[in-house]
Amino acid sequence: MVAPEHLDELRAVFGDVSAKAEGGVDFVFLPRLVLPEGCNPRETQALLCLGQHAGYPTRLFLVQAVSARGANWSSHVVLGRPWWTWSWNQVPAGLRPAEILAEHLRGLR
């Protein structure tokens, strides 16, 4: 379960975020995430995975792959819909969700 204060921290920046869960793993849905400069698309929906998924300690899923950023993009079905993510590893689950998100976004700079 995502702590209410962690959701509030994300809401202060991203607006209407919500907690989700699947298979014992917590997620945070971000309906409007602005990606780093140079990304295409610049804005997208995102799903922040706060636990292990496919061998990674945490993941950031986007509704579409970002062109010319990230490496080894792959598609996964999470919460009943397809999402895209790239190979960006070693972002530990012990961080606050806002910190996990910031570390994943570094992989798109």
Describe this structure in words.
This protein has 109 residues and is α+β, with helices and mostly antiparallel strands. It has one domain (4-106). Helices cover 19% and strands 33% of the residues. It contains 2 helices and 6 strands, in the order αββββββα. The protein has helices spanning 4-14, 97-106; strands spanning 18-22, 25-34, 43-49, 59-62, 74-78, 81-85. The strands form 2 sheets. It has a 4-stranded antiparallel β-sheet. Strand 1 (18-22) and strand 2 (25-34) form a beta hairpin. The longest helix is centred in the first third of the chain and has 11 residues, at 4-14. The radius of gyration is 13 Å and the shape is globular. 23% of the residues are buried. The model has no long low-confidence stretch (mean pLDDT 96).
Helix content: 10-25%
Proportion in β-strands: 25-35%
Q: What is the overall shape?
A: globular
Low-pLDDT parts are none
Order of helices and strands: HEEEEEEH
Q: Radius of gyration from the CA trace?
A: 13 Å
Largest sheet: 4 strands, antiparallel
Strand order of the largest sheet: 1-2-3-4
Question: For the terminal residues, how far apart are their CA atoms?
Answer: 30 Å
Based on helices, strands and strand pairing, what is the structural class? alpha+beta
Q: Tally of extended strands?
A: 6
Q: How confident overall, as mean pLDDT?
A: 96
Instruction: Give the total of domains.
Output: 1
Q: Report the total helices.
A: 2
